[in-house]
Amino acid sequence: MHDAVAALVRDGDTVAIEGFTHLISFAAGHEIIRQRKRDLTLARLTPDLIYDQMIAAGVARKLIFSWLGNPGVGGLGAIRRRIESATSGGAGQPPRLEIEEYSHFGMVGRYTAGAANLPFYPLRSYFETDMPKANPLIREIESPYGDGKVYAVPPLKPDVSIVHAQRADANGNTQIWGLLGCQKEAAFAAERVIVVVEELVDEAVIRADPNRTVIPGLIVDAVVVEPYGAHPSYVQGAYDRDNRFYLDWDAITKDEDALQSWLNDWVYDLDGRATYLEKLGPERIASLKPGSAPSGSVDYGRYA
Amino acid sequence: MHDAVAALVRDGDTVAIEGFTHLISFAAGHEIIRQRKRDLTLARLTPDLIYDQMIAAGVARKLIFSWLGNPGVGGLGAIRRRIESATSGGAGQPPRLEIEEYSHFGMVGRYTAGAANLPFYPLRSYFETDMPKANPLIREIESPYGDGKVYAVPPLKPDVSIVHAQRADANGNTQIWGLLGCQKEAAFAAERVIVVVEELVDEAVIRADPNRTVIPGLIVDAVVVEPYGAHPSYVQGAYDRDNRFYLDWDAITKDEDALQSWLNDWVYDLDGRATYLEKLGPERIASLKPGSAPSGSVDYGRYA
Amino acid sequence: MSDAAFSKSEMMIVAAARELAGQRVCFVGVGLPNIAVNLAKLTVTPHLELVYESGVFGARPARLPLSIGDPTIVTGATSVVSMYELFSFYLQGGLIDVGFLGAAQIDRFGNINTTVIGDYETPVTRLPGSGGACEIAINAREVFVIMRQSKRSFVETIDFRTSAGNLGGAEASERIRREQGWLGRGPSVVVTDLGIWHFDANGEMRLDSLHPGATLDDVRNATGWEVSVAPALAQTPAPTADELRLIREELDPGGAYTG
Amino acid sequence: MSDAAFSKSEMMIVAAARELAGQRVCFVGVGLPNIAVNLAKLTVTPHLELVYESGVFGARPARLPLSIGDPTIVTGATSVVSMYELFSFYLQGGLIDVGFLGAAQIDRFGNINTTVIGDYETPVTRLPGSGGACEIAINAREVFVIMRQSKRSFVETIDFRTSAGNLGGAEASERIRREQGWLGRGPSVVVTDLGIWHFDANGEMRLDSLHPGATLDDVRNATGWEVSVAPALAQTPAPTADELRLIREELDPGGAYTG
């Protein structure tokens, strides 16, 4: 992970760590913090705890998003403090975080346009709302068939997209099951792609079920094997969301000092995921293991 | 099949039997011929043998397509005779078939716009070609970001889409593996959907692998169980394409009389797929069986 | 708490669940809507199909989902798809009968703010934002709102319009929705901790039912505009023992949302 | 046929395969291109990745595919996706280095007709149409054409422009492609049964190599415009015994395309 982030994430980059509640690469986010990257533009539908941590650590200049919160729990204090008038932009206060805001579908449309090399993506959102006023990049577009207007969002092409997955082969051919979010679109839209996996598998495992492949090695620049690299988020079939951590975060994020000391204890003072997991402890990890629910196998047939 | 076609396919409908070389519902096409439906608009990327047969049988008024041929073999005689000047539109000749022509991506974009309730779909095709002249529904559209124009195609919303698949449950939740073509888009775009399957399975089989579901029962109006219903095309894992038939068709389609007598022998004189398979014979069918190539199973995990 | 007694949140959830009777496909939000929808499925509308914006159709959660992305809604679901497909084909494609929204601020016309309190550029309070709400409000056939009401949440003028309701009133709303081809008819019910509101011919919220224990004064003190009350104001039937048992034993045993 | 001798089709396929040396990702069409690409993978460019418009990336066919949708290209492939995804993210997204096209008519600038002979509305001959060709010509980084040449196929003016080549010439082509943001640079080679053509500074086809057995007169008699010949006209090296063996024993044992 150290080498992949060092080689592929550069100061000033637009970085997308995607994954909708599922498969969020906290391991990559923490490594970016440790390497003290700066002036990043962070893109993500739901900034979640990982961007709250990264922004608290000062890696970001700007945030592109559609829903800001700790899902099912509460708020993201570090990000809110960088946006709200009482705590940012004033004398002796940190500068206000630059934000660019869409709806979920708007963000998905942006990645889709980026991946498909389209100059815009059309969608039936934003009508009669204040969102186009808040973000002038959300624009009207007339149908060429004389049946009215819809809205358009511009392509988003991250410099780096980082995706956590269940498995990939050495060439980066990556398979995901469970929630798919918009990782595929974010990966195809990106200049560089880092895939982080629970397990490196033989090419034959991937080729046995080609419909399960979400990201082809063709667009992948680095494959990092990092078991439990998505903790405290989850990996379908491998481990559950560590909800206790999401609940604990609510108190930590409200207190800047508590947050900074958390960053010291859990990011700066550790050299990577292995030591993070040691610190977390085997019992905590074991408690997240789900029961088994096999998909069953289908037959592609041998045609020789 | 008889009841589904009788209830859901109506004279004058726009009908899409999709499936790109894979999973082509010949069984549904033959039933439409038997029921002597008329004035249909037939939509399909690759009209293939099935539309050649249906158009020879006189069910269609119009064809919407992107590639007209017998893939890997030759031409489609019945359709060509209804388009070419020497054999159509003249005195004593059948009327010229109305055609509306796109590229593959244009057709996919049309179904996608139909499925997503968009007034158009934008794409980087058609630049500097004669296709927009031949089809005025292919129109230019300016990017609202001042970076030039792309082309647009209008939504296609078939009255009926017919999809053949490996399996579905009784509610119509349908799973497909192998080539996916644009069946999902064609189904979501349609007013009515008929799913034809090799095998009806228990809901639990579908729910064991939800990422494999391509069409939800929510949009399905009828599920027809018709093993070998895609012959002479193929079903991944179940049977191979009957290439001998595709080769034989080249001679049949060149001769209107031969084609009409083929329709009598293989469609009108039969009451359905069962008798078609009897006529085809068990050896022919057995010869199409592939070896086994299992996908392997993944674990979704039990989270209780 | 004995079965006889019940919390305001429990009443709100029960009332919202009952409003779902007869609906077929529901777009589920996290938190209160999630519990209300699951209660409805166990009581008034067992065939209700749940769609989660995370990409899940036909979920069979084995436990109350902690979020709309909980792995328990994936395992055993009918279909799990990308968000592109969920928003394009299910929501914008017109398959959703009811979208369930929460709100930080709502006005009398059902327009919703979940973005900021104060000025957008320099907000007093930064809220989560739209997520999928602004497109649910446009594309779901109708919208249910569930929220606790107060003078701070039921306001004369919302600070930011995140999701469209009846805009400036029924006439304008119907014209604009028709002209622009929206699939959604707009908000149809707002269930709060005090009562049940529907929308009158002008597209304004009208109190149709008071929850047991709540008074008209309570409602007036928790509403930032002149309250319109139905001529035949009903009293919401109290939660049944069965409804309370389902909430307390199956849907929210920890009392996270209903305590 | 002895190993020493070879057919014009075999020479054409071998020449096309050799042109693929050094390429990485190729968009495969059915028929001759399919054999040429598979031969290249077995000889000059083993790491060539094959993309089929049917939705297959990283195919490992266990037999020569009968069509671009043959089940043998699916089983054992790296990835199989919808056509939406293939055309949006792989082709239009700019991942294709070489697109391989056939043609019924081609002009000196490499503009291609696969739609009709005669008038579009009342054609003398109705051809297959674009399929994916018109978007391959725009979005693939470069385009290879493989076709048999004659006065009927190599024409002064094509009856219908299905796929864009160098338009009216290199200058116009480069300007339009730049202004409209095309990813494709256009056609780079045309391999026929008589020789190998590349494009000169004006974007016109220039004969750079004659196949063994073919003469300049043969070429002129099979070209509908004044043939431009490279100053140093080469002779295409004959197929090697190994190349012929691969075609005859592995790729096209039935001689369907090369007989």
What does this protein look like?
The complex is a heterotetramer, with two copies of chain A (304 residues) and two copies of chain C (259 residues). Chain A is an alpha/beta fold and 304 residues long. Helices cover 32% and strands 19% of the residues of chain A. Chain A has twelve helices and twelve strands. In chain A, helix 4 links the parallel strand 3 and strand 4 (98-101). The longest helix of chain A has 13 residues, at 256-268. The radius of gyration of chain A is 20 Å and the shape is globular. In chain C, the strands form three sheets. Chain C has a ten-stranded mixed β-sheet with strand order 4-3-2-1-5-10-11-12-13-14, with helices on both faces. In chain C, strands 6-7 form a two-stranded antiparallel sheet. In chain C, strands 8-9 form a two-stranded antiparallel sheet. With 259 residues, chain C is of the alpha/beta class. In chain C, helix 1 (8-19) crosses helix 2 (32-42) and helix 2 (32-42) crosses helix 7. Chain C is 25% helix and 21% strand. In chain C, a hairpin with a 4-residue loop joins strand 8 and strand 9. Chain C is built from seven helices and 14 strands. Chains A and C meet through helix 5 of A and helix 3, strand 9 and helix 4 of C.
List the helices and strands and how they pair.
The complex is a heterotetramer, with two copies of chain A (304 residues) and two copies of chain C (259 residues).
Chain A: H1 2-8, E1 14-17, H2 26-34, E2 40-43, H3 48-56, E3 60-65, H4 77-81, E4 98-101, H5 104-115, E5 121-123, H6 131-134, E6 139-142, E7 149-153, E8 160-168, E9 174-175, H7 183-189, E10 192-200, H8 203-207, E11 213-215, E12 222-225, H9 243-254, H10 256-268, H11 273-280, H12 282-286
Parallel strand pairs in A: 1-2, 1-8, 2-3, 3-4, 8-10, 10-12
Antiparallel strand pairs in A: 5-7, 6-7, 8-9, 9-11
Helix pairs in contact in A: 2-3, 5-7, 9-10
Chain C: H1 8-19, E1 25-28, H2 32-42, E2 49-52, E3 56-57, E4 79-80, H3 83-91, E5 98-101, E6 105-106, E7 112-113, E8 116-118, E9 123-126, H4 133-139, E10 142-146, H5 170-179, E11 187-191, E12 195-199, E13 205-210, H6 216-221, E14 229-235, H7 241-251
Parallel strand pairs in C: 1-2, 1-5, 5-10, 10-11, 13-14
Antiparallel strand pairs in C: 2-3, 3-4, 6-7, 8-9, 11-12, 12-13
